[in-house]
Amino acid sequence: MVSPMITEKVISNAPYAASAVTVIAGFTVKDWGVIIGVILTFITVIVNWIYKHRQDQRETILFQQKLKHKKH
After folding, report:
1. Biggest distance spanned by C-alpha atoms of the chain
2. pLDDT interval class at 24 (50, 70, 90)
3. Per-domain residue ranges for the chain?
4. Residues with Cβ < 8 Å from 35, sequence gap 6 or more?
5. Cβ atoms of 27 and 35 closer than 8 Å
6. pLDDT of 2 strictly over 70
């Protein structure tokens, strides 16, 4: 037997799920292309930012090491 609380949660969330499915089913191939393009662009920006941040950290360490050696 299913708990009444679980049943209530499923029933209360069913309209949201049905709405989401309806919206997704209504997308054309062109819409999906735009959505995927935006997502991939966002991922590319994040990956580039991470690698640039790491490169900046490495270059800062190298610069500090050069400064340290010039003082001696």
Report:
1. 79
2. confident
3. 4-71
4. 27
5. yes
6. no
Mean pLDDT of 19-41: 92
State mean pLDDT over 48-57. Answer: 97
* Residue whose entry in the numeric block shows the structure tokens 């640039």: 52
The SS3 of residue 25 is helix
Report field, pTM of the whole predicted structure over 0.70: no
Q: Is 28 helix (H, G, I), strand (E, B) or coil?
A: coil
In angstroms, the CA 61 to CA 29 distance is 48
The token pair at 56 is 């900046």
Give the span between the Cα atoms of 41 and 55, in whole angstroms.
Answer: 21
